[in-house]
Amino acid sequence: MSDLPAHPLRKWTSARVALGRAGGSLPHRELLDFRLSHARARDAVHQPFDPAMLALELESHGRPILLAPSQALDRPTYLQRPDLGRQLSPEANERLIARRTADGFDFVVILADGLSASAAHLQGPPLLAALLPLLDKWNLAPLVIAPFARVALQDEIGHALGARAALILLGERPGLGSPDSLGAYLVHDPRPGNSDAQRNCVSNIRPAGLPPAAAAHRISWLLLESRRLGFSGVDLKDSSEMRPITG
Amino acid sequence: MPWSITLAGSSHHFADLRTLLAKATPYRSGDSLAGLAAGSAEERVAAQFVLADLPLAHFLEDLLIPYEDDEVTRLIVDRHDARAFHPLSPMSVGQFRDWLLDYETDHLALAAVAPGLTPEMVAAVSKIMANQDLILVASKCQVVTRFRNTIGLPGRLSVRLQPNHPTDDFKGIAASMLDGLLMGCGDAVIGINPATDQVSTTCSLLHLMDELIHRYEIPTQSCVLAHVTTQLRAMEQGAPVDLVFQSIAGSQAANKSFGIDLALLREARDAALSLKRGTMGDHVMYFETGQGSALSANAHHGIDQQTMEARAYAVAREFQPLLVNTVVGFIGPEYLYDGKQITRAGLEDHFCGKLLGLPMGCDVCYTNHAEADQDDMDNLLTLLGVAGCNYIMGVPGADDIMLGYQSTSFHDAHYLRQVLQKRPAPEFESWLETHGITDSRGRLRENPRALADAAQTLGLLAP
Questions:
Q1: H-helix or E-strand containing B43?
Q2: CA trace torsion B290, B292, B295, B297 (10° rounding)
Q3: φ and ψ at B173, to 5 degrees?
Q4: First-to-final CA distance of chain A
Q5: Most A CBs within 10 Å: which of B159, B183, B369, as the mutation test of the A interface?
Q6: DSSP H helical segments within B276-397, as ranges?
Q7: In angstroms, rounded to a whole number, what is the distance separating the alpha carbons of residues B373 and B428?
Q8: Which of B399, B432, B438, B445 has the most A C-beta neighbours within 10 Å, making it the best mutation to test the interface with A?
Q9: Which are the contacts of A133, defined by CB distance < 8 A and separation ≥ 6?
Q10: What is the pLDDT of residues B179-188, one digit of tens each?
Q11: Which of B165, B410, B411, B453 is the best mutation test for A, with the most CBs of A within 10 A?
Q12: What is the DSSP letter of B68?
């Protein structure tokens, strides 16, 4: 928030270079500027997730919405017990199993707070608005909202619903300059025990990073490719920029 | 071998050495995550009482990971120097702690016993020590290393200049490098974490730093912190590699998850030595470690994270590194939850590494989902300065825009040098003075002559 004229070095990087000094220490504006960035990142980590509000926003897509929390019941537990964030609460598991269909679903989209609830609230709805129309030929499972989820919860959710692919959108670890960045992880054939090497990731989804429309393009490309190939993960290389979506 | 103790009427039982060590460890979230932490505060202290009475020699017989299963264990056992250990052989862990604090135990005495110490002995004694004990004993250790300058002398504090950029943009990196040098940082190493682990990027970044170091005759060394195999490939292509970097851990399985083993590290060290680029010494390795890395790779063998960290130092010690630093708060709150846990771990790691004879630095850092802030970093930074830490990180404004975490800044380094009357490595200090960056009192000067044309040379003046 410094209003000093920009130092020439600052043209080349967003790193905090040429900050000046008071003695050898930070000038007060720079000290406060850093604190502001950290305060925003902290607020993002601890902002309560509001699944009901999110569900209301997503109603316009005309799809059923299910709530499926993990076994981490509060944020301190979530932060200290990644294993609990990878497991569905028993009630949620039953709720999802009850929605299985004979044909199964092509895929399920999960929206979660992860490490930044504000990322889910700010980037989730516009991303889904861009993504769902690209996938209108698919047999989609109900949308799932999953509080306190780690990435691998997509395996339990997809498996419980009987979906052939799962996409989880969740708030990334907030950086100082990017407190509300959303990450998307795709897995083909979700089932407990999948490794991270079987997932594809699209990260840094936010207006100043990868904007929702571009992210939706890449995600749908990955979904189509993984369905065509029958797998996802490190062997599925993202070349969405070179090859157009063909349907 | 099981142990039992009765304290004020309640009895406590510890089934084996792993359990005893884990339960004696000051509380941290990672041990709880692993299901290893003491069940109560009293059980923790009970374990510390039992541990204090355990003979040091017990650790030579009761191996935490079987010899035949793990090459780090084999390294620890095979390299143990019985003659250096001899004066300590009658001591218990508790007596060892008291000996470390004795007035007569000076840096020479500590250096003499270092080859006789195993990581498990050092981890064990640290668990019963207070924070001030960890600081006092570490401050008595002196570990001096050399490549193009001299790091770790008494009264000195060096800084790794860390000019990372999220897309490895050369001008962005150059801008951060220039800023750091003008703030008096970079004597430990100029070390870049590349955003992408590619041989071509690694080579280009190495050339960028090599040209800068040579053009301005800066008495320091450079490093690109890519995977060791990438750096080997870069050396094959003739890139100017000063130091070889690698992250290491305390078990063979954890190292395997990093894609390395001891043979690969040996190969990389030999390759770097053959380049003969050091002018003052041949310490060519740079290692990073951190509590929790073995657990996160599920390669901890039921051992607490602090003991596993100390075992990583046995790996480091084998390769005579110029620099070793724990990246103490990077791993996140699942392993070290808050400022208190990060502080304790930083002091433990620095102490254990120094006692084993390593040139320890520390990346004093945290992530935004940890319960910590810059004030916690100020505290740990100051404590480590008092403990005689060899070097810290210098990141522009403490904000690493590539790795997405907060470390210490150029300003922080200058603060620590000011408040503790610490000076840079002597060769680098002379360079700073000769080029007008600092005055004879170590104060930063306005408009230094040095590097006056560097912005142009590095292409930072073009529109």
A1: helix B41-53
A2: -50
A3: -65, -45
A4: 46
A5: B369
A6: 293-296, 305-317, 339-355, 374-386
A7: 31
A8: B399
A9: none
A10: 999 999 999 9
A11: B411
A12: G
A183: Cβ–Cβ under 8 A, 6 or more apart, which residues?
A: A114, A151, A169, A170, A171, A172, A201, A202, A203, A204, A205
User: Do residues A170 and A182 touch, judged by C-beta distance below 8 A?
Assistant: yes
Token digits for B53? 């009475």
d(C-alpha A85, C-alpha A79), whole Å = 9
Distance between CA atoms of A157 and B343, rounded to whole angstroms?
Answer: 38
In Å, how far are A215, B195, B228, B240 from B235, measured between CA atoms? 38, 19, 11, 7
What is residue B423's DSSP assignment? B
A176 to B404: CB separation less than 8 angstroms, yes or no: yes
Rounded Cα–Cα distance for residues B255 and B260 (Å): 5
| C-alpha angle B290-B130-B143 in degrees, rounded to nearest 5 | 55
Tell whether domain A50-229 is in CATH 3.40.630.190: no
Distance CA B59, CA B151 (A): 32
Considering chain B, what is the average pLDDT of its residues?
96
Distance CA B415, CA B399 (A): 17
pLDDT at A243: 46
Kindly state the tokens that stand for B189: 């190493």
Read off the pTM. 0.90
C-beta separation of A155 from A166 below 8 A: yes
Measure CB to CB from residue A12 to each of B29, B164, B172 and give the nearest one.
B172
For residue B394, what is the enclosing H or E element?
strand B391-394
pLDDT-derived band of residue A4, with 50, 70 and 90 as boundaries?
Answer: low
Residue B144 CA to residue B247 CA, distance in Å, equals 21
A209 exposed, middle or buried (CB, 10 Å; 0-12, 13-18, 19+)? middle
Distance of CA A166 to the CA centre of its chain: 12
Q: Which residue has the tokens 């304790």?
A: B344
Task: Give backbone dihedrals phi and psi of B40, rounded to 5 degrees, phi first.
Answer: -150, 165
Tokens of B178: 């220039």
From the list B409, B133, B178, the residue with the least C-alpha distance to A176 is B409
**Beta partners for B361?**
B325
Question: Could you give the CA distance from residue B439 to residue B418 in angstroms, rounded to a whole number?
Answer: 13
Which of B139, B156, B153, B105 lies closest to B386 in space, CA to CA? B139
CB contact under 8 A, A13 and B172: yes
Query: What DSSP character marks residue A163?
Result: B
What percent of chain B stands above pLDDT 90?
A: 90
**CA B430 distance to own-chain centroid:** 26
A245 within 8 A of A217, measured Cβ to Cβ? yes
Q: Please judge whether A173 and B404 are an interchain contact, meaning their C-beta atoms are less than 8 angstroms apart.
A: yes
Q: What is the mean pLDDT of each run of 10 residues along chain B (463 residues)?
A: 88 97 97 96 97 98 97 98 98 98 98 98 98 98 98 98 92 96 97 89 96 96 96 97 98 92 98 98 98 92 98 98 97 95 98 98 96 97 98 97 93 98 98 95 87 82 62
Domain locations along chain A:
50-229
Query: Cβ distance B14 to B320 under 8 Å?
Result: no
Instruction: Retrieve residue A161's tokens.
Output: 């619903």
Angstrom distance (rounded) from CA A114 to CA A93: 19
DSSP letter, residue B443: P
Question: Chain A closest CA to B332's CA: distance in Å?
Answer: 9
For residue A36, count other CB atoms closer than 10 A to its CB: 12
Token digits of residue B103 = 């007035």
User: Which of B374, B443, B461 shows the shortest C-beta gap to A38?
Assistant: B374
